[in-house]
Amino acid sequence: MTDQLTDFVQSGHSTRREAAEARQRAALARLTWETAVDQLVRVGFVKLLRDDGTIERAEVLPLLDQLAEAVTPGGEYTSGGGLGSKPPADLTALSLLAEISTEVRRCCAGHDHPHPAELGPHVDRWAAHAEQWQHDAPEYVCWAAAVANDWVRRARQILDPPRRYTLRGRACPVCRATAVHTWSEDEGDFVRRPALAIDSDRTEVVCGACAQRWPLGAWTALAAKSTPDSESDEDHSLVVTEGIDA
């Protein structure tokens, strides 16, 4: 009887401890969720360091607005003063916006609160559930926090992609491409760049033509496998050059 009573007491302590830990996780997740949504829907601020050493505070658009601008860019002027080619719509940004819209509207379907037509206000309404669901649906709050945080990460990667370093003078061993045309913000037009580049964010070599990737350990093998383009007059040694839009 004593052993059974001890087991019952220990079980009660364990249950209360697990419940307390779950509440703590939900509280932290709610904070993460709300912080991520703030970055998606609210104006942000950055500090700009001027050449004279002064620091200015500037506003930046919410991430959702920046993604929308990336999807529907306008014409830009080239450095020569003429109107350049229209930059391509960013399909990655469009895909992310569609994913966010689908998930938020699915979650809020059937709720009696307003359903704004614009995505930003709707995402804001979605996050407004955080306080109540922290207690009623803690598992969902933890999931929503992870999802919203991932949306912010992916949005920033789209808007400010990691620097890449091009591998000049060799053809892709898969598709044989040696160069690709990519949009350049500096030139306001498409420019020709080497097809192979090092993705420093994922530590991989990537082909801009066929999207084939190789891990870090395959860089040496890539240099051995890739062969020079016989029609090119460039130096065919495998040279790493700095680039952004590869």
From TrEMBL:
InterPro entries: DUF7340, DUF7341. Residues 28-159 form the DUF7341 domain. Residues 225-246 are annotated as: Disordered. It comes from the Bacteria. Pfam families: DUF7340, DUF7341. Residues 164-224 form the DUF7340 domain. This is Uncharacterized protein. The lineage of its organism: Bacteria, Bacillati, Actinomycetota, Actinomycetes, Pseudonocardiales.
